[in-house]
Amino acid sequence: MRYGPEQAEKTKERVVKIAAAQMRKRGPEQVGVADVMNRAGLTHGGFYAHFASKDDLIAAAVHRMFEEAQDMFRGATEDKERHEALRSYINAYVSKSHRDRPERGCAIAALSSDIHRQGRKARAAYDKGIASLLGKITALLPEQEGVDRRALAVSMMAEMTGAVAAARAVSDTALSDEILASARRSLRARAGLPPSQPERQSR
After folding, report:
1. Which domain holds residue 171?
2. Which residue of 5, 7, 19, 140 could cross-link 86, Cys pair, CB 3.0 to 4.6 Å?
């Protein structure tokens, strides 16, 4: 049965979305074409109607993961003043919810240990996604005398993604929570954000 271009695009998008979720949970090396197509309710043979290779699927999935990360960013920062937008994004990213739901989380934390083994297209999509996020973080950072905002954004991004990855890796829940809480405090302080009222009261 032949489908029109619109239906074909919807089918392709469903496959990419499933691949992205599986990559977050298991890493790109453990994502198989047959499994992804089966989860999408499609046959393995139908894969090549949408993608030239598995590498193309992985690259499309990486791109999709960063698109979804943009949704996280918008949800945390939209309609907020710059300081509060940055605080909200830090709190949302370095959170138990993000830690506990890797299948819906950021591509950077999910793929940082695996992406270097992927093909050129996947790595290009990853680089583009990181560059976009760095630009957004830099734009939210307040001006501080003697502080290079771009360099600070790079360092903060590394701390945010590293904290989430480390919190996922440890088996001790209390330690995992401590990693996240400590990173949030550090990130807010380094960004020059004054403590919010609940944070002042908890000291």
Report:
1. 53-194
2. 140
